Amino acid sequence: MPRLSDFVKAYDVRGLVPEQLSDEVAHALGVAFAEVVARPDGKGGVVIGHDMRPSSPPLSAAFADGVAERGLDVTMVGLCSTDGLYYASGALDVPGAMFTASHNPASYNGIKLCRAGAKPVGQDTGLVEVRDLAQWLLDGRSGLPASPSGRGTVEARDLLADYSAFLRGLVDLSGSRRLRVVVDAGNGMGGLTVPAVLGTAAGLPALPLEIIPLYFELDGTFPNHEANPLDPANLVDLQHAVREHRADLGLAFDGDADRCFVIDADGEPVSPSAITGLVAAREIRRARAGGDRAIAVVHNVISSAAVAEVVRENGATPIRTRVGHSFIKAEMARSGAVFGGEHSAHYYFRDFWFADTGMLAALHVLAALGEQDRPLAELARSYERYVASGELNSTVVDQDEVLERIRAWAVVRGASVDELDGVTVSSTGPTESMWWFNVRASNTEPLLRLNVEAADRETMARVRDELLELIRGKATSAGDQQERPE
Q1: How crowded is residue 200: how many other Cβ atoms within 10 Å of its Cβ?
Q2: Chain-centre distance of CA 180, in angstroms?
């Protein structure tokens, strides 16, 4: 039997098929999920969805069998995006399981788990207990007593139209000018959800959009490129198509279509922090129109400084969190924040059970662009105020020593330091250009991740290179950085 601790991560399950994640393992995890999460929460059912990977249908069926074995009813929604599964969990008010490995290669699969109302299940909210009970079952130490209520039912239900109508109800595109949009689904679940939400495939009225599809064929072997738009190499086809078709913008979704990246009409990526600011301003106005007075927006420590500025300018309160969806979701639930954004292009909405949905963010971008006549690059300029390095990863064995050097560097310069997530250092001097950086350790690899932002490119490059020298222990010019997005 595999050791589940090797591939049950902090936020989800992600492993090789079938060496780690097999039908037997999925069945045991289904049993454990029913016992640890669904039954104690007083829920008599579980909803399960899956992506387009060849291994997803049998794995999700094995998981469903484990849940039903414990006397709980299962609703199988079949092919869906991860935010489609969150919709099902919220609308049906039951815990859920989504079988996907997001942008990972075809040899992988995984499971994203949630409680009723799309509340996350992570290492501090039940995932460790699910893992340990499943391991106990797989090791054959003992079985659980039979369910007193007998076996639960398993039924199929199609919620795509309901999901699409729900999202359409949150953003009004009726007053938009007609937009030409290139969408790269990367052979992932966007190939199912985009025609339903942005088109008429789910029976909804046509929107003022001309959709030009790229790689909409559902294919979990990813024959065209990785379904990971965070890597610039995977945006090349979309950028070319946007320019070729003279489109107003381009959208790129990852494998399970819960993240959305935006390209302007010139083929240039729009920073996810800029999208966070744009959507935040719209959601703040929407909340205020609905009668809200104390409005908050959540962002993580590596989001642009412009995000907090935009939130304050719109009369709301910015709340800063650690990187990671569990921290964003927990803080949003605690504060009742109307919106949350991460620089990884995850966008969270109070009106979507505080869960993340790239499709809803895309609808906001389309509405914002269509309501006025300026091109997207000009519209985004007010939200892209500073120059960023992108995330720079360095292999570091003695991370504590390096972080101590960075703290000492900050003290010498009289900079402010906080340690909400790693080490964040900000300039405080009135005579120098604004800059800040964050250095934090990877949860899974011996890496330190550096993000730098400054008021101008020269300042950003200076701070970036000084920090890389501290981290890597040698002078590093801009030309020899090995920059690869997370």
Answers
A1: 12
A2: 25
In contact, 416 and 316? CB cutoff 8 Å: no
Could you give the 3-state DSSP secondary structure of residue 97? strand
CA R_g for the chain: 23
Tokens 């790129």 sit at which residue? 252
CA distance readout (Å), 15 to 2, 37, 248, 412:
10, 22, 39, 45
How many angstroms separate the CA atoms of 262 and 270, rounded? 6
Cα–Cα distance for residue pair 91/114, rounded to 1 Å: 13
102 is catalytic: yes
Active-site pick, 56, 102, 271, 394: 102
pTM above 0.90, yes or no: yes
Over residues 200-218, the pLDDT tens digits come to: 999 999 999 999 999 999 9
Distance between CA atoms of residues 189 and 257, nearest Å: 6
List the end-to-end C-alpha distance of the chain, in Å, as a whole number: 30
Locus of tokens 């949003």: 332
Token pair, residue 9, equals 């991560």
- Three-state DSSP state, 315: coil
Cα separation, 281 vs 320, in Å, equals 17
C-beta separation of 232 from 391 below 8 A: no
So what's the pLDDT on residue 318?
98
What residues are paired with 296 via a beta bridge? Answer: 317
> Element (H or E) spanning 142, and its range?
none
